[in-house]
């Protein structure tokens, strides 16, 4: 009798986990949403910029994946370079008084995971750029995580 509720709980857990894992990728980014988020991040208060930059890097990464899949390597490469720029801005904006710092760290961790997927599927021409971008996002994520534990 006790095994039945455990089996049901296990089945519900298996059903719920994939839905939770895809929540970050539900919204399909486009150039207009990226531009709007970039304007919002640049105009935001310093306490809010880290999270907005993390959102921006995430959306750019997702859009870059779409560009690579569509065969538009030039646009994807340009996005990778912009991701690097905003990863540097995250590095500069991580501080003790940031809002949503843990959310920023989670978003950056997911972004790094998505970038590693791009890296594994990239051509030899794109690999150095993607590796550098991934390293910069990993560094920003590590700094955000370190700051979370300092609080």
Q: What would your notes on this structure say?
A:
The protein has helices at residues 3-21, 31-43, 46-69, 73-93, 101-121, 127-150. Helix content is 81%, strand content 0%. It has 6 helices and no strands. The protein has one domain (27-150). It has 151 residues and is mainly alpha-helical.
What's the count of strands? 0
Name the shape in a single word.
globular
- How confident overall, as mean pLDDT? 82
β content, as a range? under 5%
The helix fraction, in percent, is over 70%
Q: What order do the helices and strands follow?
A: HHHHHH
Q: Low-confidence runs (pLDDT<50, min 5 residues)? A: 1-22
Strand and helix map with partners:
Layout: H1 3-21, H2 31-43, H3 46-69, H4 73-93, H5 101-121, H6 127-150
Notable traits:
151 residues, mainly alpha, 6 helices
How would you summarize this macromolecular structure in one to three sentences?
The protein has helices spanning 3-21, 31-43, 46-69, 73-93, 101-121, 127-150. It is mostly helical and 151 residues long.
